[in-house]
Fold:
Amino acid sequence: MKTDNPLLPPGYSAVPPGKLATVVTCLEMFAPPPAKPSPAADTSLTLQHWQSPDIESYRALFRAVGEEWMWVSRLVMADENLAAILNDPKVEIYALTDRGRPVGLLELDFRGESECELAYFGLVSDAIGKGAGRFLMNKAIEKAWARPIRRFWVHTCHLDSPQALQFYQRSGFKPYAAMVEILDDPRLTGLLPKSASPHVPLIEP
Structure:
């Protein structure tokens, strides 16, 4: 993640046609927080360790969870590069299921020395607001700190759910850095449908 770009000037900065600008917030924790009760007492929720998932199945869940929030990085990544990540023993991938239906994705990346990145965390739209997020976060924290790490970190941006930043903070993460990211609008490249992410204005060149 690049942090050495020159500072943006004070005031407004124009965003080029076809691009999106988003403010990224990085958060971290250095010890497991006190456990929070999960309102999802429904035993139909199951977290399954997804060892070496095939690329097609992984991308299908990645898209189902992330299309509304502009998750595109794994959709455009070369197959061989994605396969290397999915098969890396230092990357743990989990699927959250509800009565056998995949409803969430959790990806923990331990490739950094003595740390874990909460690389991907999300639910399909009809599972949001029912306690599944807290259930999944409790599992994420438990599994991250089961390894000998000193730091657990995550980043989010305003393209994500409006509740994401506060949810991470309630879960024990503390903000430590902010950045501006410029990216191609995937709805204009055809990677995502134009109906995706209605909370983000679509400005056509």
User: Anything to note?
Assistant: The longest helix spans residues 132-144.
